[in-house]
UniProtKB/TrEMBL annotation:
Organism classification: Bacteria, Bacillati, Actinomycetota, Actinomycetes, Kitasatosporales
Pfam families: DUF3097_C, DUF3097_N
InterPro entries: DUF3097_C, DUF3097_N
Species whose genome carries this gene: Streptomyces abikoensis
Superkingdom assignment: Bacteria
Disordered: region residues: 1-21
Domain DUF3097 residue range list: 22-85, 115-273
Protein name: DUF3097 domain-containing protein
Length: 275
């Protein structure tokens, strides 16, 4: 005698039910429950002691809960089986604009004795835009010099030491330049000072042209103020403040900056924070 548990299926093939598609019950999916004709959008799915259920809301705002039975719903007139949506994969860790792992809810650290100096306000604003979150977590303050000529006297007044390192970012730091001579002077006086720089005439150039929506940075004739020459070359109004805000608005992360600047800022942050 065949037991019910192991009895073979003797139903003729032409009488067997055809398989129906399984559809994830995603929010806002509109279906019709086959036995009641209730039509509505999926609000939520729940796991209960009697099995999974789905809540539908009709166009009048009325909600009803139905068991997620096989072949229990119609989708665009087709019989379907609703199933619970797959769990969303864990979200990737949030990152700061510099690409570092974000620390949600972290408070700004009490400022270190060490500092990072940059040449001007635009440099400081660009560093804040990309590395601001990192600097607050590390307790590093960024100040600007309004030019590099006074750097030797500023370094002497600062009095750098093992627990108060000083990092300096300089524009147009190329061999033979005034900037390179000043950098050599201040670093020779103290091992607790690091001066690095990028090759660009101004920090504007460290922003990738594509991020600003331009084909490239124009060549400015010698003797002309560089920022003014850039505005003329690009056909922008000769308002350097407005031009800078236009440039800065195109910077959303480290990906909008040239590697020649990225590496130098990271180097300074490491220098003033590593014991």
């Amino acid at each position: 005698m065949w037991s019910k548990r192991y009895s073979p299926d003797l139903t003729p093939p032409w009488k067997r039910s055809a398989p129906v598609p399984e559809i994830p019950a995603e929010p806002d999916l509109v279906v019709e429950e086959v036995t009641t004709g209730f039509c509505g959008a999926v609000i939520r799915c729940e796991k209960t002691a009697q099995g999974p259920t789905v809540t539908l809301e009709d166009r009048f705002g009325k909600c009803r809960v139905f068991p997620m039975e096989p072949r229990g719903f119609l989708l665009d007139g087709r019989v379907v089986t609703l199933v619970r949506p797959a769990s969303a994969p864990p979200a990737a860790p949030a990152r700061t604009a510099s690409g570092s792992l974000a620390v949600p809810g972290a408070r700004a650290r009490v400022a270190r004795a060490g500092r990072i100096y940059v040449e001007g306000r635009h440099d400081a604003e660009l560093v804040e835009r990309v590395w601001g979150d990192d600097l607050r977590v590390e307790g590093v303050v960024v100040e600007y010099l309004e030019g590099v000529d006074d750097l030797p006297s500023i370094v002497r007044s600062f009095g750098p030491g093992p627990d108060a390192r000083l990092g300096v970012l300089v524009d147009h730091l190329v061999p033979g330049s005034k900037e390179s001579r000043i950098a050599a002077e201040v670093t020779a006086e103290s091992p607790h000072v690091l001066v690095v720089g990028h090759p660009y005439v101004d920090v504007w150039e460290a922003v990738k042209p594509a991020s600003v929506g331009i084909p490239g940075w124009p060549t400015v004739p010698r003797g002309m103020d560089w920022k003014t020459g850039v505005c003329r070359g690009l056909g922008w109004p000769e308002n350097t403040g407005a031009a800078w805000q236009r440039i800065l608005s195109g910077v959303r992360s480290y990906k909008d900056l040239e590697p020649a600047l990225l590496g130098r800022v990271e180097e300074l942050i490491d220098f003033v924070t590593v014991p």
